[in-house]
Amino acid sequence: MPNVISVQRHLVEMQHGHPSATGDLTGLLWDLTLAFKVISRSVNRAGLINILGLEGETNVTGDEVTKLDRFAQDVICRSLEHDGHLCCMASEEEAKLIRIPERYPKGKYVLCYDPLDGSSNIDANVSVGTIFSILKRKTESGDGTLDDVLQSGREIVAAGYVVYGSSTMMVYSTGQGCHGFTLDPSVGEFLLSHPNIQMPRKGKKIYSVNEGHSRYWDENTRRYVEYVKSPESGGPYQGRYIGSMIADVHRTLLYGGIFMHPRDFRRDPVHGQGKLRLLYEAAPMAFLVEQAGGIATTGTENILDIVPNDLHQRVPVIMGSADFVEEYLRFQKGDGPTAKI
Fold first, then answer.
1. Around 24, how many Cα atoms within 13 Å sit in the side-chain half-sphere?
2. Residue 69 predicted with pLDDT over 50
3. What is the pLDDT of residues 309-339, one digit of tens each?
4. Domain that holds residue 301
5. Is 162:108 a contact under the CB 8 Å cutoff?
6. Residue-wise pLDDT tens digits, 221-231
7. Cα–Cα distance measured from residue 255 to residue 321, given in angstroms and rounded to the nearest whole number
8. Which of 151, 169, 194 is the last residue of a domain?
9. What is the CATH number of the domain that holds 64?
10. Measured at the alpha carbon of residue 237, what is the angle toward residues 231 and 240, in degrees to the nearest 5?
11. Cα separation of 259 and 245, whole Å?
12. Sheet holding 98-99, edge to edge
């Protein structure tokens, strides 16, 4: 019989690599896995328990809130607010910091999360998921503050995501590689299925981007996408865009390729804008991509180097196999194979 490793066992083994560890981070991640199991069960039964569809309101960034968004938000918050590991939380679905109730102890960590990425497609049975990152607080004690949350991705101590698809899979890292676990519903456990994920440096020739917005991109990004569709690229590359970041990046992590949500000049004709949230989507995924050997950039700077100035700050995102992202960056500088197009 093959060696079966549960996520709990894996967390403890990772902790043993740090003799000074107190077990707080392990306990926090352990509690998160329970929340993910609850969300997975409800996502798979959503059509039967009347939690499909919209709630009839929008969140702070203007997205329509689905019933499952609210359900996942509440499950994570209630699963973690009492355990003494957190001083506060921040969620894509909440305008302000989520405070830990006064009756509960305050811990040394901060949780940032997107409770249900891709939820606008949930009624069409498209894969959705949860994205999270954990930071160590900067203040010494008491309630958490904005200073505790607004830290660069370089300060992340753990990050991960869960895909609720044909199977439920969790990928996480504590800075010691990137590891994937598949939920076995027969035993109710996440079991190690993808140890030490390494993104191919070049990988499959796949590009993932919403080309419907191409007229609003900068010229060098348009030229790059035309290039990957041309014979000069050694391709053409295959276009694969699901419209759920978590599903597109998950595929990129496993197979290689490049995922793009580039700067968009519709709303800001001078500087352009990103679409994805730094704290809840871009930074956690960038942390995982780098742990797997890839690169994550805005096109001008490494995503993990950005210090947020707002809870809901948006940034452009280009991430994937190192060779592909480096090629994109050469286009941004006006270098590389642009002359062949």
1. 17
2. yes
3. 999 999 999 999 999 999 999 999 987 664 4
4. 206-333
5. no
6. 999 999 999 99
7. 9
8. 194
9. 3.30.540.10
10. 155
11. 9
12. 98-99, 86-91, 109-117, 128-136, 156-164, 168-173, 179-184, 189-194
Which residues, in sequence order, are CB contacts of 83 under 8 Å at separation 6+? 27, 28, 31, 107
Q: Is there a single domain that holds both residue 54 and residue 188? A: yes
Q: What's the CA gap between 156 and 290, in Å, rounded?
A: 12
Kindly state whether residues 214 and 123 are assigned to the same domain: no
Residue 259 token pair: 């995922």
Domain boundary among 194, 226, 242: 194
Gap between the Cα atoms of 130 and 79, Å rounded: 14
Q: Which amino acid is at 294?
A: G
Q: Tell which residue, 202, 243, 203, 241, has the closest CA to residue 225.
A: 241
Q: Phi/psi at 213 (nearest 5 deg)?
A: -100, 10
Helix axes 24-44, 7-16, angle to 10 degrees: 160
Q: How far is CA 231 from CA 18, 123, 144, 235, 321, in A?
A: 49, 38, 53, 5, 20
Query: Which 8-state DSSP code applies to residue 250?
Result: H
Which amino acid does the sequence have at 108? K
In 3D, which of 129, 126, 127, 125 has the Cα closest to residue 116? 129
Catalytic positions, please?
63, 69, 92-93, 114, 116-117, 281
Same domain, 185 and 52: yes
CA torsion sign, 187 to 189 to 193 to 195? negative
pTM above 0.85, yes or no: yes
DSSP class of residue 63? P
DSSP element (H, E) containing 256: none
Report the alpha-carbon distance of residue 15 to residue 7 in Å, rounded: 12
Backbone angles phi, psi at 214, to 5 degrees: -60, -30
